[in-house]
Amino acid sequence: RRPDIECKLVVLGSGPGGYTAAFRAADLGVDTVLVERYASLGGVCLNVGCIPSKALLHAAAVIDEAEAMATHGVSFGKPKIELDKLRHFKEQVVGKLTGGLAGMARQRKVRTVQGTGSFVSPNELEVKTAEGTKLIRFEQAIIAAGSQAVRLPMFPWDDERVMDSTGALELAEIPKKLLVVGGGIIGLEMATVYAGLGSEVTVVEFMDQLIPGADADLVKPLAKRLGGKLKGVHLRTKVVEAKATKKGIEVRYEGESLPDTTVFDRVLVAVGRSPNGGKIGADKAGVAVSERGFINVDSQMRTNVPHIFAIGDLVGQPMLAHKATHEARVAAEVVAGEKSHFDARVIPSVAYTDPEIAWVGVTEREAKEKGLKVGVGKFPWAASGRAIGIDRTEGFTKLLFDEETHRVVGAGIVGPHAGDLISELALAIEMGAEAADIALTIHPHPTLSESVAMAAEVYEGTITDLY
Ligand code: FAD
């Protein structure tokens, strides 16, 4: 069969990985086609992930701050929530970003094809579009087909009261009683949104800690604050049965700490995401896919087939947008003939909960497990003028240094804006900064960022009277 479209590069999927790769390749002069099954570009992150969740978290944060100010003499009264307007705000935020992408694709002459793509040979992709099947013949390909929410089989998924994160972000209603299954980042962000809007939220988590990837001390202030806002947080507990009844979704648990509520108006299942590597006909192109659906790549993002690359969620953890965009640039540059490599030392992680938790590099737990000799500098925000001024003294900033070189190797921050504060430490680690470099850098006063320099000073012993 003759191809309908011929191109130098086809990019499959238009998430942060796919659109970044397509745009970078086009900027480098590569004739590029971008294939996406949905009408809106931007993938999970822009449409049903990072961006809409942060727009809704903003609403929850404003409500929370307004309530907190009441104890300090400024009252606004009970919030009146107009769900249609709030949904519209979220959709506008998403629309601005996804609409911008469509314009950027046009400017670069990236051809976009809407439809579901599947490889049929090492140089051909078949795309099922509304106008029929189109065959794309390509010289090189970048697979950026992302991931999707894991659907635990014991839930009645045909009932709209059972939601994954995409369903929860639709904000169909504010359920009176919401169960969140999974105490990871996505589960807790959505729990924060719904609790802010007035739902009675119960969280169950199978592991013995919320946000299991982060150090336990970072999670403590969050767990404490959530304790006051949620109906309950239950660790070492799992749902073993769930059925749809007239009254709601009825669940049965097993574990150490059983919630007293068993019937919920809605349930959000947020227990992780699985890669889409197994759903794109990769075998027809000869691309190896693991049993779980991940595609293995080298540091140039090349799969086992030299002219086919893969990036983003489907090449492995952490499944984060900023990892996908960086991998995307590498893949696009290699496609264009440049000698790029993915060699980031660290990838920061952030939970945009309240307080936020952010960490980068080695965690204290990892250091212990690997027997690394690290020293810790910890600065409590109770000693920060800015934190006291915003009445948020529960946070702290923790830096981990290699005991031999005194270079910073890891950092964790908990408190408002922790996600913004962590970037300085990612840069410090990338540049091999020592404790003195950080301590001697003049940070503006009074800011939360001062806590970074102070933590380095604690490690160096120049601040001693904190505890
Ligand atoms: P995706 O964004 O998954 O994009 C893949 C695209 O490929 C999709 O548009 C899909 O429709 C398309 N596609 C798949 N198969 C085909 C096919 N066969 N044919 C055509 N098109 C196809 N990350 C962060 O860094 N920060 C956050 O704050 C954050 N918040 C999140 C909140 C939620 C609720 C969720 C669910 C995720 C969040 N993430 C966050 C994770 C982030 O969304 C992902 O890491 C990121 O989107 C991965 O990008 P990607 O390009 O690999 O794939």
The number of distinct helices, counting runs of at least 4 residues, comes to 14
Query: What's the gyration radius in Å?
Result: 24 Å
Any low-confidence stretches, pLDDT <50, length ≥5? none
Distance, first to last CA:
75 Å
Biggest β-sheet strands, sense, barrel: 7 strands, mixed
Report the mean per-residue pLDDT as an integer: 97
**Estimated share of beta-strand residues:** 25-35%
The residue fraction in helices comes out at 25-40%
Number of strands: 22
Summarize the SSE layout with pairings.
Blueprint: E1 5-12, H1 16-27, E2 32-36, H2 43-48, H3 50-70, H4 83-107, E3 111-114, E4 116-121, E5 124-129, E6 132-143, E7 147-149, E8 162-163, H5 165-170, E9 177-181, H6 185-197, E10 200-204, H7 216-229, E11 232-234, E12 237-244, E13 249-255, E14 263-264, E15 266-269, E16 273-275, H8 282-285, E17 308-310, H9 321-335, E18 349-351, E19 356-361, H10 364-370, E20 374-380, H11 385-389, E21 396-402, E22 408-415, H12 418-430, H13 435-440, H14 450-460
Parallel strand pairs: 1-2, 1-6, 2-3, 6-17, 8-15, 9-10, 9-15, 10-11
Antiparallel strand pairs: 4-5, 5-6, 7-16, 12-13, 13-14, 18-19, 19-22, 20-21, 21-22
Helix pairs in contact: 1-9, 3-4, 3-6
This protein binds flavin-adenine dinucleotide (FAD).
Flavin-adenine dinucleotide binds next to α1, β2, α2, α3 and β4.
